[in-house]
């Protein structure tokens, strides 16, 4: 009888030890899972001209990136938060699609890439969206960066003829309206420059151009690319205020 009791007691002790071991393992797993839920990867910025899908940054979660129309994604389309709390892949950015790649400007025209479109700067004697039409008397192209056109004229109530120029043009000798070259007027002066980088004059207007790898900001004057912003120590002033000064 005593031997039987000793055997039962030993079995109970063995079962108790096994139960304690299982309980310890279970508590460890619960603690590990709780700790893992609190571990996150660094915040990922949304690319300019694009979107980020997914807000969670915990281990095992993914985020996805898309670009707006007219832009293409460069970098990782999806990134995973890894065990070491770092993101897989590379930070993507949205690059403007080169609409001038097909060389749409004819007759020696110069193509300027824009968002979801292109602009052709036509040589002397040609006009049209692709420089495909011979110039008429209304448009007289002076050069790739300076244009002139006939003024808009009307007679007043006293029979006198009054003429005016469109916005961005000024009356010159001979009665023609000549384009105001904003790039020549303002770009060379560091204190009044209208573009942080390059400037291209357009008929009645102008356009700022960014270096390769940079994108034009919504202010249409400064550029931004990746995580670095080019030096823009002089904020651009309003174009209309400069013409009036």
From TrEMBL:
Entry keyword Ribonucleoprotein: no
Domain EGF-like as annotated: residue spans: 96-132
Any one of the GO BP annotations: endocytosis
PROSITE patterns, per the entry: ASX_HYDROXYL, EGF_1, EGF_2, EGF_3, EGF_CA, SUSHI
UniProt cross-references to InterPro entries, sorted A to Z: ECM_structural_protein, EGF, EGF-like_Ca-bd_dom, EGF-type_Asp/Asn_hydroxyl_site, EGF_Ca-bd_CS, Growth_fac_rcpt_cys_sf, Sushi/SCR/CCP_sf, Sushi_SCR_CCP_dom
Protein name, as recorded: Fibulin 7
Membrane topology: Single-pass type I membrane protein
Biological source species: Monodelphis domestica
């Amino acid at each position: 009888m005593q031997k039987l009791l000793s055997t039962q007691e030993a079995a109970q002790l063995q079962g108790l030890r096994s139960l304690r071991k299982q309980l310890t393992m279970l508590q460890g797993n619960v603690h590990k899972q709780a700790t893992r839920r609190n571990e996150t990867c660094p915040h990922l910025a949304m690319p300019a001209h694009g979107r980020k899908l997914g807000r969670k940054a915990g281990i095992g979660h993914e985020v996805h990136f898309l670009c707006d129309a007219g832009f293409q994604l460069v970098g990782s389309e999806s990134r995973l938060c890894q065990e070491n709390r770092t993101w897989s892949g590379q930070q993507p950015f949205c690059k403007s699609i080169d609409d001038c790649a097909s060389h749409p400007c004819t007759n020696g025209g110069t193509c300027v890439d824009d968002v979801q479109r292109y602009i052709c700067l036509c040589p002397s004697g040609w006009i049209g969206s692709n420089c495909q039409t011979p110039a008429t008397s209304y448009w007289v192209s002076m050069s790739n960066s300076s244009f002139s056109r006939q003024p808009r004229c009307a007679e007043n109530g006293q029979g006198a003829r009054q003429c005016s120029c469109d916005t961005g043009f000024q009356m010159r000798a001979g009665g023609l309206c000549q384009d105001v070259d904003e790039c020549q007027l303002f770009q060379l002066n560091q204190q009044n420059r209208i573009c942080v980088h390059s400037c291209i004059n357009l008929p009645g207007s102008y356009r700022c151009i960014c270096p390769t790898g940079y994108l034009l900001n919504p202010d249409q004057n400064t550029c931004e690319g990746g995580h670095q912003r080019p030096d823009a120590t002089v904020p651009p002033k309003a174009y209309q205020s400069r013409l009036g000064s």
